[in-house]
Amino acid sequence: MNETFKNHVYQALNKGLRLDGRKKEDFREITIETGVISTAEGSARVKCGDTEVIAGIKLSLGTPYSDTPNDGVLSTNTELLPLSNPDFEGGPPRIDAIEVARVIDRAIREGKAIDTKKLCVEKGEKVWMVNMDVLPINMDGNLIDVGALACIAALKNTKFPEVVDGKVDYKHLSKKSLPVNALPIEITVVKIKDNFIVDPTQTEEKILDSRLTVGVLEDETICALQKGGDQPLTQKDVDFMVDLAIKKSKELRKLL
What we know:
256 residues; 26% helix
């Protein structure tokens, strides 16, 4: 990105505007649709401007970890598909894909979104494994927030499959929902020069100095933090970014 274009972005932000006409604290229009994948136990599609993400939930029976014999297992995977953005390439998971998965996973895990003890079928022997896949269909920035919202919507949409003679029957879903206890919302606040924005586009992400992703629960408790970008943040920066994240999380939570 050339310096002339960067300066154009900076000048607009200094006037309180962004290239797409939004104010610094505005999200793009968001829509949520659930039950979009017939072969998944739960799924959701979230569109945020030109960013579109699908999250799918698959349940399976497996062996718990030895140090948590009473708990089910949660795993999160993100694949950055080349069809969603020309910057993405096929092959092994990219570092940024791994980061997106880990940051989304952390808020859901630390926010106790799922009561994992209710996933236990037989202590130390058999538990439900919850596998979340996050796939961008089109990527124009803010993949963490949009992906996290899709995951929460998909988890709420999830039903257990029937189990017949100890075997999972994926063709028939029961009426039993996944034990979702909390709805952690992730908000990423980006710092560009002296400006703070939410819901960055890919263009804005390419010139950010720092970013802070904040996981927020219904009672405004912070359940996760992840800092990104090359530049440091002051305590004043962090306080402002956390307060802004809490404020915006209330808006996104209403969409669920």
